[in-house]
Write a structure and sequence with these properties.
Two copies of one chain form a homodimer.
Chain A (H helix, E strand, L loop, with lengths): L10 H20 L30 H12 L21 H13 L10 H17 L33 E5 L2 H23 L5 H5 L2 E6 L4 H10 L2 E5 L9 H13 L3 E8 L11 H11 L2 E5 L24 E4 L1 H4 L7 E5 L2 H8 L30 H36 L3 E4 L6 E6 L3 H14 L5 E5 L2 E7 L7 H33 L1
Parallel strand pairs in A: 2-3, 2-4, 4-5, 5-6
Antiparallel strand pairs in A: 1-7, 6-7, 8-9, 9-11, 10-11
């Protein structure tokens, strides 16, 4: 309880309440499977449970926690629940939670080196570690591996023309990473067009800029296009749900004939819809030829690159200009933690930097200032999550986690395949299985509704080429074979009911028709 | 220690390590004043202290924490230190840390109502609380206070034409808030221009759009202009460092004569340079007349509106279209927590929304989906910080905190005023005092350098109208009068040395001249 109404909580209160919170979290995660995976509340449930106005006097911690139980927990969709198979995993692990605790406790803000040297320096180091774990081409790494055995060379802001211009930073989301890449590409292309024709106005160039992506790319590509005010072409995919070079090339040539200016291509390593892969080698060659910025979004599936057996996926990365993956999805780190690497960091800094006096400091020429990498000026000490989690699991532990999810997806897919009422959509490569009831979409739509309404399991839909299907993602940190069997049993039971009902209806319709 | 190299840390490990971390944080914040406020490291200090590659095997928690002490703590600029007077406060308090812990522990991601009802619903409730605490005009509040006594009406996505179209959300930073406001304004203006002249191309309109702000506005306005690709006019301020209506009007008229299209004005409530205020009433009237979007950035000083005696500052808010303040600055909440209110939420949603199938859900028509409010799709459960902190302190506790910082700024200013070698720059209204040594800028520049090099105190510079000065911000949560006296003593001691040296130099120069 607070010592005084006007001071919130003192050090000793925090020692007690903080330790209670640690137990609350451990209890929650230990016993999570006893809860419904989705809540039973309806929109608008919360406001009638809370006062219309904030309290005048401070309240006790006990009262606040009572309200967490009473009002918040009943409205939680439990992303860490073993029956949660929606979206993609929401990364979470104890080392990551500990990092968030430390980040909050230190209460620092890192926008320049001077404002927080440790935060500024740990970030490229952890992005370097992860980039190496993923075998990214050396040109993306914050530190040139060729110099590993040489004396330390400090990171600088001003090495835009040095031998090694790659780098990486943590951004708030994949959406921000893709927007930043697009803005850097836009700045580059506008600069070269202005050089070609100095009299041209920026607005004239802008209204001709076109970016290309697959129609299965994440919606944030479209959003980035809205913000950057450029046209976005969402191109069709092949039978493996992959964007191919020929499709891209035809669209680019048609656009150029209309006088438009292609400038950016966003490929996807693991689409949200069905975890498909674009053909980076084909797309990359076209980008190189046409001088387009090539970004690859590997928000979820990029994490798999830490396993050797998945590194074939980077075929074509020699043409890539920037790449992002979100350890807050599939590497056990809490949101937000989007890793963004770029071949030419100066392209990003040129597109994003403004430099007021109050942020200048005596080390500015020697030090990297991370504020130039994203939209926000300030940043939490986010790299602690990477550092703690990678160190606590080790490369082997993280590989084990990824491999286990991929193995379980295959286990689940084999259960689906054994029941001939179902079919799999797309390839099962990572931790996602897309499936449907054979036949009309409405059967699968009904199955989805029943599954989610049951509160026993949570899955979400997708649709590609008019085929409606259910995405089943392996999400729980400690998912095991038992979970696959339970999930399949739940699905089978609901499918039984739906198909029974459907057969009744169709046969009665047939009868009526007769 | 981990039970296994491949599983990171189990529930029982976390109970132990989490409680140790609680003590680590409490110890850190209890004893922080024993440390230097700024670190002694040089750029590039960290990498030689850490391995070039991530570890293959998981490491023990004890080893990780040893490295926190060995490698991270020596590189921390201590924002919570009683001698930290740089930038603005980095909000921090125990209830806020507890909220971050719970947010991490739950590990949910809130981008749609279905993905997390509690996260989606608590956010507008807490923005409503805070908006009422600040006496914001009712049009900005997520819930219309006129309906307080009526049965609950749920928040909807689709009420764009209803009586009450205001609302609020938490964004990642003031930079994002201002960018979102600018994008909404851009979309509105382009739409109306297209209606006037359907044949006009978007690029043609865009190349004519102009936004206006004071030259003391935060650099993120310029950055938002870079991203939105619009011209930004940084206008001169009056003798109180305030942007006035006449200055704005003259620039607008000149731009219109050139065929340009004014569309957005960003006023500041508490500039970063010297905490000055623009004249919202004068600016607002012009915005109304010219049909411009009027945003007010109150990132720091907006917090003062929770105290009645500061509510005169909202004079002119009847013309304001959107407003932001960052409780992560001056309301004891950890970064990131930027509150953004808007008079017409549909203007924001129209500018920002994309809607793929995998994010659609059966409640979509009845529920607000917060993903339409910002750049990122995903979001942490950030409103817990607002909820915990407001409840734990109560309105009175937070008011007390704000008033105490304002009072201490006046105490410090009176110390400065008593020493006639110094002068105050601007008005001391909030928790910031700007001062300098009388005479040439280089004296104050030297003083700044000496103060920061000493490690005894941390302050940063600013410069307005060619006058270089030092910003002294009251930052520590529990700052007291003693801290003001100590800070002033440190400043006096360094000033003594500099002025002594300077007098020696000038007198020896005089001698040489003779």
């Amino acid at each position: 309880m607070s010592k005084s109404n006007t001071t919130g909580m003192d050090h000793e209160d925090f020692r007690r309440c903080g330790k209670d919170m640690v137990d609350f979290i451990a209890d929650y995660l230990t016993n999570i499977s006893e809860r419904r995976v989705t809540p039973e509340v309806e929109p608008g449930y919360l406001r009638p449970m809370l006062p219309r106005n904030a309290p005048e006097k401070g309240e006790s911690w006990e009262d606040i926690m009572k309200d967490v139980e009473r009002a918040i927990m009943p409205g939680i969709t439990h992303w860490q629940h073993p029956r949660f198979h929606a979206y993609f995993p929401a990364g979470n692990s104890y080392p990551s939670i500990l990092a968030e605790m430390l980040s909050s406790g230190l209460g620092i803000v890192g926008f320049s080196w001077a404002a927080s040297p440790a935060c500024t320096e740990l970030e490229p180091i952890t992005l370097d570690w992860l980039g190496r774990m993923m075998s990214l081409p050396a040109c993306f790494l914050p530190f040139n591996p060729a110099h590993d055995n040489e004396p330390e060379i400090s990171i600088t802001n001003t090495d835009c023309d040095s031998q090694h211009s790659g780098g990486g930073a943590l951004l708030g989301s994949a959406s921000e990473s893709i927007l930043v890449a697009m803005l850097a590409a836009r700045t580059n292309k506008m600069k070269s067009k202005r050089l070609e024709k100095p009299s041209i106005e920026d607005g004239q160039i802008l209204s001709k800029l076109v970016c290309y992506t697959s129609k299965l790319a994440h919606s944030c590509v479209e959003k980035a296009g809205l913000i950057a005010m450029v046209k976005v072409r969402q191109l069709p995919v092949d039978e493996h749900y992959s964007l191919r070079g020929k499709t891209l090339d035809e669209c680019i040539q048609a656009d150029k004939q209309k006088g438009l200016i292609p400038f950016f291509v966003c490929g996807t390593l693991g689409t949200t819809s069905c975890c498909s892969l674009d053909n980076f080698e084909e797309l990359g060659q076209i980008c190189r030829r046409e001088n387009l910025w090539f970004h690859v979004d590997g928000a979820y599936a990029g994490a798999a690159l830490i396993c050797n057996e998945f590194q074939y996926l980077t075929k074509g990365f020699e043409y890539v200009d920037s790449f992002n993956t979100n350890p807050n999805k599939w590497l056990l780190m809490n949101f937000d933690c989007s890793c963004f690497w770029v071949r030419d960091k100066c392209a990003v800094i040129n597109a994003m930097s403004v430099d007021p006096l109050y942020l200048q400091h005596k080390h500015a020429e020697k030090a990297t200032d991370l504020r130039h990498w994203g939209i926000a000026l300030s940043r939490r000490f986010r790299s602690l999550k990477l550092w703690f989690t990678i160190r606590s699991y080790g490369i082997e532990g993280l590989q084990h986690y990824i491999r286990e999810h991929c193995r379980l997806a295959k286990v689940f897919a084999s259960l689906i395949n054994e029941d001939d009422r179902f079919e799999i959509i797309g390839d099962v490569v990572f931790g996602l299985v897309c499936f449907r009831l054979k036949g009309k979409n409405k059967l699968t739509q009904k199955l989805l509704l029943y599954l989610n309404d049951s509160g026993q399991i949570h899955v979400i839909p997708s649709m590609v080429n008019e085929i409606f299907f259910i995405r089943f993602a392996i999400c729980a940190k400690d998912a095991c074979e038992y979970d696959m069997h339970i999930a399949f049993q739940i699905i089978q039971t609901h499918a039984d009911g739906i198909l029974f009902e459907y057969q009744k209806t169709t046969s009665s319709t047939s009868i009526r028709k007769i």
